[in-house]
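Fold sample X.
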Amino acid sequence: MDHFELTLVSSRPLAPAVRHYTFVRSDGARQPFIPGQFVQVHFEHEGVMLRRSYSIATPADEAGALEVELAVSFVPGGAATALFENLSPGDRIQATGPNGRLVLQDGDRNQRYLLVATGTGVTPYRSMLPLIRRRIAERGQRFVLLFGARTPGELLYGEEFAAFAEATPGFAFIPCFSRTGYQPPRPYERSGYVQAALAELAPTAEQDIAYLCGNPNMVDAAFEALKGAGLPIAHIRREKYISPPSPRALPARPADGPQA
């Protein structure tokens, strides 16, 4: 695990409470990471040193990337929110990493991957896109991204995933809206919670490996649905996005998983 400094290049809104940040390492080096991993941001808040974890959203191969892209959810009163909402281009933050095992494993010989996400839990899958294209071309594996949101306005990187699916046979994108969908509706969207759409895909132990990332309730519900379909636990890889407790109750320690 490396300790490094990141310099903000730019930021833009992704959704009403989510912002996309593009950083570079201050030393000019490439940031090594495996698509699906996360970095930890270290900062001081009210006299307490804190850490927050964010999945790297940069589409990249195994060699890493020059830019470190993060999707950050803003939580009213949140310590990390106070940090990120006040950043301007040229500002610097401290980070360590990469960490995490929510990566495509080289030894996998399955026919299909089911990538399931809600909210900023979709960012690891965005980083995997170049690797997914290669897996489809070299191994003939198929990928389905099930992405749950309340409305299209909260579907982070939705147009990017839709364009990737259109240009990449073997990759399907299925947004699932719990409130209102596209107007007019798109043929590939679904209504309801993302875990409910799993049954339509008829998962089987023989062909599928599933990745679950995002809201803990979704991760737990999808995990049970996949187990009920016969997938062994080794074929269900999970990462929960958690909201941290109050900074006054949280000493600096490794995070349990990326923060929402």
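Fold sample Y, listed below.
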Amino acid sequence: MTSPTSMGALHGLKVVDASRVLAGPFAAQILGDHGADVLKVEAPEGDECRGFGPPFVNGSSAYFNAVNRNKRSLVLDLGKPEDRERLFAMLQSADVLIENFKLSTLKSWNIPDAGWFSRFFPRLVHCRITGFGDYGPYGGLPGYDAAVQAMTGLLSINGEAGGEPVRMGVPVVDLTTGMNAAMAALLGLQARSRTGRGQMADISLYDSAVSVAHPFLTNFLHSGKVPAPTGNQHANIVPYNVYRTRTKPLFVAVANDRLFAKLCKQLDVSHLPQDERFSTNRARVVNRESLEVELGKAFLGVDGEEIGPLLLADGVPAAPILDIQSVAESEHARVREMVVRREDYVGPGNPIKLSDTPATIRRPPPELGSFSASANESVFL
């Protein structure tokens, strides 16, 4: 990360983060990292993911800290009319609202529907994050990452071939939804620059999960064949798998015939690309099992630690399987600033690297209610 004094691309943008747990806070942090002034509105008990530990750092979980830097925390009990009025007062000058309130909660506040925010605050870009949206057969149901993975087919295609479905270890649905919400905020602001009007962005975990079921969804739509788990293999590309060597196993992904020929040359099996069963990717997919036997034998005869760098240098995607510790301590992660250390804050870096207005860490994750202001005082900087 660059100097904390640098102005980001979103400097001057005012964001109210009234969301909880992961997708919404992650979206707000993306905006905050790039310069937005983000005010996190929390209930008196705080965002529940403050307790998602161990480990804990300065009273909050590492989980919470990873998605709530560059924010200030204001405690409001939105069950009280006077605190709701404070929220609404903030929205008069805010540019973006990110929330994941239940529709029933809004109705208990005498808000008839989610579109009310855009009608009442016409310049506000309102990012509404829900599990399944507010309409449709599942409309209004609560959404949880693993449950949505299950209901969108993602679990069904993850795991070993012939084995049981396995949850994706990374909360990919929440994180993808957070990225979509941040993108939606920027799209809404761009539209506002032309029209002068804000709008509501309807972002659901369900929609986000279905959108990343690639290529399995599109394969089914065009073939009618229901996909099943394939382990480390790829439905449309061969070879694409983990291979055992004399030393470390390697993940190898070969996306075209030219790279396949290079791989075979390094493995000293240059005859394989001449075999009509393996000469094209289409043929290799059809004859996958036969080819895997041949490649399995060839890889067992080489040193993975030696051939891995040689394959990469030759343009063939090949990589050792590293654990999280190895990644966190790697020189490349350090140089790319993907693990950041600033004073007493340690966390994941920002992957969006702008040349003129880079992301910065200006504030550590806030203590609950660390920001306070009188009812008549402006809360934005």
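Sample Y note: The first helix runs from residue 23 to 33.
Also: The mean pLDDT is 93.
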